[in-house]
Amino acid sequence: MTAQVKGTTQNFIEIENIRDDIVIMRDGSAALVIETSAVNFGLLSEREQDALIYSFAAFINSLSFPIQILIHSRKMDISNYLNLIADQIKKQEIGLLKIQTQKYYEFIQNIVQDNEVLEKRFFIVVPFSVYELGIKGGVSGSKATKLPYPIDYIVKRAKTALLPKRDHVIRQISRLGLRGQQLSTEQLIELHYALFNKDTSEGEKIIDSEQYTRPIITGQ
C-alpha cells in the first residue's frame, strides 16, 4: 500500500523567514516592502492629473531595477469606533449635541450594515534576486528546499543591495506627493498573515516577533 503523503500549507509558501525588515525566500532571494500614501486621482484637475502622470512616468523611467506594486483591500472593523461614539453619547447631557451625535451614530451604523467598509493599502515591493548572490543555475521559487547560504549572509547581502534602491524609490515617489516607509519585521508578518488569511485575520495581533525564530500570530 502506498503511504499517504502529508503536506501543509507551508509547503506552498515560498517564504523561508522574515528578518531585519527583509522577507527571505526559500531559494535565497529576498525583498523589502515600502508602504506608500495615496492620491485620489479622480478629485484632481485635468492639469494636476497630467502632471501626476508625467511624474509617474519619470519615476518608472528612473528605475534600473524591477519593482512590484501591490494594492491590498480588506474589510475594516469599525466596532471600536462605534463603541467610542456610544460612550460619548452616554456622557453627554440631553440636548442638541446629544441628538446630533445619536443621529451620526445611526448614520454610520446604517452605512456599515448596507455596505462593506474597505481599507486600501498601497505597497511597492523591491526584490533581491538569488542571482545577486552569485548563484548560477540554482533552484528557484517553490522548488527550492533549503537556503543556498546561511541566512545571516543572505540578509547582509540583501540589505546591501536593497537599501539604496529603497532610498531611491522613497525619494522619487516624494515627487509625486507620496510618502513612503519601509515595513518593519512585525508589519511584514502582519501583512503576509492578512494576505494568506483574508477571512480570519481581522482582529488578530502578532506576538512580539523578537521572541521567536519564526513568525507567530495570536488571536484576541
Structure in words:
The chain has 220 residues and is an alpha+beta fold. It folds into two domains: 9-75 and 122-218, no CATH class; 77-116. Helix content is 38%, strand content 19%. The chain is built from five helices and eight strands, in the order βββαβααβαβαββ. It has helices spanning 46-61, 79-91, 96-114, 151-174, 185-196; strands at 15-19, 22-25, 30-36, 68-75, 118-128, 180-182, 205-206, 217-218. The strands form two sheets. Strands 1, 2, 3, 4, 5 and 6 form a six-stranded antiparallel beta sheet that branches. It has a two-stranded antiparallel sheet with strand order 7-8. It is extended. The two termini are 44 Å apart.
Looking at this protein, list some descriptive labels.
single chain, 220 residues, alpha+beta, 2 domains, 6-stranded antiparallel beta sheet, two-stranded antiparallel sheet, 5 helices, 8 strands, 19% strand, disordered C terminus
Briefly say what this structure is.
This protein has 220 residues and is an alpha+beta fold. It has helices spanning 46-61, 79-91, 96-114, 151-174, 185-196, and strands spanning 15-19, 22-25, 30-36, 68-75, 118-128, 180-182, 205-206, 217-218. Strand 1 (15-19) and strand 2 form a beta hairpin.
Question: Mind sketching the topology for me?
Answer:
Blueprint: E1 15-19, E2 22-25, E3 30-36, H1 46-61, E4 68-75, H2 79-91, H3 96-114, E5 118-128, H4 151-174, E6 180-182, H5 185-196, E7 205-206, E8 217-218
Antiparallel strand pairs: 1-2, 2-3, 3-5, 3-6, 4-5, 7-8
Helix pairs in contact: 2-3
InterPro entries: TraC-like_dom (IPR058596)
Domain TraC-like: 22-148
Pfam family, one: TraC-like
